């Protein structure tokens, strides 16, 4: 299955920023489609390539290991690739389309968009047209997302309709608003991190399960309409 499998009526789920075996096991038990590993040292959720490799070894078949990088050097990227079996790359910095394709080297990849008031959706999707998915996140200071929602109503309806099968929605999602987001945008997947933590960088197994249940409930609600 995995994050990139598009099935109408079933929203895929990614939990990002996992650092411990217990968090990995809890996410898998909750029923996620992908887990994200942050290779960005300033982040409180950052892991080393070797730690990520050990955590990835716990994943069952069908759960994607997503590698989040931010303006990584060629050497840093090569070190990640050599150690960890990443199945999908997430470029969250200022990488150009050419850099994304060169670094991914044939692997699936997605580009994060930092969506502010003046964000040009058409330009972005045209520029990164070869990406496997578009991850929509809020524009915040720094990189890697800030757990802040952006104005979903600002997404042009035509763009949303045309690109829904490629959209991974992020940015401040939680059990209270993910249903509205799914009903409005019908994204391929949703991506969550800070709202399923008991403290900064520490994932909570109960909160992860509650988020997954909220997504499934939203899917069922749409199916019944």
Can you lay out the helices and strands and say which pair or pack?
Elements: E1 12-16, H1 21-30, E2 34-39, H2 49-56, E3 64-69, H3 74-83, E4 88-91, H4 97-104, E5 109-115, H5 121-127, E6 133-138, H6 157-163, E7 167-169, H7 178-185, E8 189-192, E9 197-199, E10 202-203, H8 205-223
Parallel strand pairs: 1-2, 1-8, 2-3, 3-4, 4-5, 5-6, 6-7, 7-8
Antiparallel strand pairs: 9-10
Helix pairs in contact: 1-8, 2-3, 7-8
Uncertain stretches of 5 or more adjacent residues: none
Strand content: 15-25%
The CATH architecture comes to Alpha-Beta Barrel
CATH superfamily: Aldolase class I
By secondary-structure content and strand pairing, the structural class works out as alpha/beta
The helix count comes to 8
CATH topology: TIM Barrel
In total, the number of strands is 10
Radius of gyration: 16 Å
The dominant shape is globular
What's a quick, concise take on this entry?
The chain is of the alpha/beta class.
Descriptive terms for the model:
alpha/beta, two-stranded antiparallel sheet, 20% strand, eight-stranded parallel β-barrel, 225 residues, 34% helix, TIM Barrel, 10 strands
């Amino acid at each position: 299955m995995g994050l990139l499998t598009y099935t109408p009526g079933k929203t895929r789920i990614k939990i990002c920023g996992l650092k411990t075996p217990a968090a990995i096991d809890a996410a898998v038990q909750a029923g996620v489609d992908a887990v994200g590993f942050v290779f960005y040292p300033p982040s409180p959720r950052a892991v080393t390539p070797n730690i990520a490799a050990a955590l990835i070894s716990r994943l069952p078949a069908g759960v994607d290991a997503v590698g989040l990088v931010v303006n990584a050097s060629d050497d840093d990227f090569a070190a990640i690739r050599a150690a960890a079996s990443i199945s999908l790359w997430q470029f969250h910095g200022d990488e150009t389309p050419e850099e994304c394709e060169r670094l991914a080297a044939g692997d699936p990849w997605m580009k994060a968009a930092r969506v502010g008031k003046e964000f040009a959706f058409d330009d972005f999707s045209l520029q990164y047209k070869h990406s496997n998915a578009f991850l929509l996140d809020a524009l915040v200071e720094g990189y890697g997302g800030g757990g802040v929602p952006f104005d979903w109503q600002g997404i042009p309806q035509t763009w949303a309709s045309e690109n829904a099968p490629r959209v991974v929605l992020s940015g401040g999602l939680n059990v209270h608003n993910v249903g509205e987001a799914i009903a409005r945008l019908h994204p391929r997947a949703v991506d969550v991190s800070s709202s399923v933590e008991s403290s900064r960088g520490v994932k909570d197994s109960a909160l992860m399960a509650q988020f997954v249940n909220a997504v499934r409930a939203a899917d069922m609600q749409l199916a019944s309409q």
